[in-house]
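User: Can you model how sulfoacetic acid sits in this protein?
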Amino acid sequence: MSTTNVALRKWVQDTAALTKPDRIQWCDGGDAEYEALIQLMLGRGDLIRLNGSTYPNCYLHRSDPSDVARVEHLTFVCAPEKAEAGPNNNWMSPGEAHLQMDALFDGCMRGRTMYVIPYCMGPIDSPYARCGVEISDSPYVTVNMKLMTRMGAPALRRIEREGHFARGLHSTGELDPDRRFIMHFPHEMLIQSYGSGYGGNALLGKKCHALRLASWQASREGWLAEHMLILEIESPEGEKHYIAAAFPSACGKTNLAMLIPPESQAGWKIRTLGDDIAWLHLDGDGRLRAINPESGYFGVVPGTNPKTNRNAFDMIQRDAIFTNVALNAANEPWWEDKDKFEPVIDWRGKPWQKGNGAAAHPNSRFTVSARQNPSYSPLADDPAGVPISAIIFGGRRRELAPLVYQARDWRHGVLVGASVASETTAAAIGAVGVTRRDPMAMKPFCGINFGDYWRHWLSFGTRSSKLPQIFHVNWFRQDKDGRFLWPGFGENLRVLRWIVDRCAGRVGARETPIGFLPLAGDIDLKGLQIAPEVVNSLLSVDHASWQREMNDIAGYFAEFGAALPSELSEERQRVERELAR
Ligand code: SAT
Ligand code: MN
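Assistant: Here's the modeled complex, given as structure tokens:
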């Protein structure tokens, strides 16, 4: 196989001349190709077959122990001007980055096969979808791309029709942390990733293309590329709303997207359109429509069980790839909080003993096709996407942020999104549990200067009068003994219902300086064992703490200097004035 697209043919030839693979394989995305790659990896020991009667077609991949998460300090945006990348990104000049990367890629695929992987981010016939080609020497990447994207022949046909595509070159290299870089060249719509085989560093359609390059492209073309799940909520009366929600990695996006209504919420239904990324476009009527560019999930495994996420638990019983989980005595995948049984082999492949710490890596992952999700919405394949009623921002915060509040208007909502802060998780290398600013949950993924990105967000306020309402939630409030105040998981539906009621104009709210909060009784708490004083503290706004927060946000915004939109600092000052009143 090859292609009629001259630019693609030339890029493949040039890349082969540089990396010197033994073979080139053009991927068609078919099942036979997938099977053959699985067999190849089983033979090489890159995959372990799991118990075939309880976990049919499931495999375990162990990555190098030094290669288990995204590496933000080795991730760069290489735009010609440093100001384009902003203080929120590492920057290197494109010339220097190309020199470094060419030296790393030189001859790196000797003895290996070079896979040419055409893919489409979004429904193949959607005007909102965008194509890319990843060149990789990793069969693990190739099979994951098949599960995560619309990969193969149909994507190549679209590329040949349209004539343009994003380019991603990836090699696992030597898996040496000192020879590892994830480089983005937005002006060339090019990604170069070397030295890591792990998730967000290697599956280039996901964070690298669909967020970092796409956020650059979206800001030029007038749309939004966001780190958001997309869900459908249907009331017992059949009223449907679509919600997009942004949370940092490993803060429960997959769980929320697949939420199962508890018994007390009979008749309500949640369907999943996406669990990680949303591309949002204004349609001809001024409504914001969302598509999920992905077609599979790369979810955190630990903590998944029938109580926390029955849908996810069920969907990973077959045709799934597990990365860095443990094994039990029955050769089944095992992870913390899975069940009462004990693991025997840890994620490194060593015998596990009590007291050794976690058996599965805290950032261990499953990869599955989205269609295996029992709550999968076929609208995920609708080329037109879905109209969004509400945008939700959230973070992991022990203190301060109430369970839920609503921004006054779009401009205030942009401030709410820009001020998101969250405690760090195991999804990236580095300290866990440290609170940091993570605007729109895009800190690791925004390929442009946050100042320009916020200006772009604000510009929607003048482009349409039918924009979604913006909310902020915090499922992670704790008391002084570290106990969670809110039960979370399925019970979060109660908060989603209030959000939908607000969008439909059915309930009032208490106006506070930080936005609108629920009135007593408007969040359905029937059947919850939750004390009134706990509800009070979940819905309280402590002015002194919020003044400190606004002050902290001012300090953070100051890092962006002249790139910070004045509208955003004026909005912050408005909130600050109201808090002081
Ligand atoms: O490894 S990924 O970056 O794709 C997962 C995540 O951090 O959300
Ligand atoms: Mn994510």
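A couple of observations from the model: The pocket of sulfoacetic acid (ligand 1) is lined by residues 70, 199-200, 206-207, 249, 298, 427 (CB under 6 Å). The radius of gyration is 23 Å.
User: Helpful, thanks.
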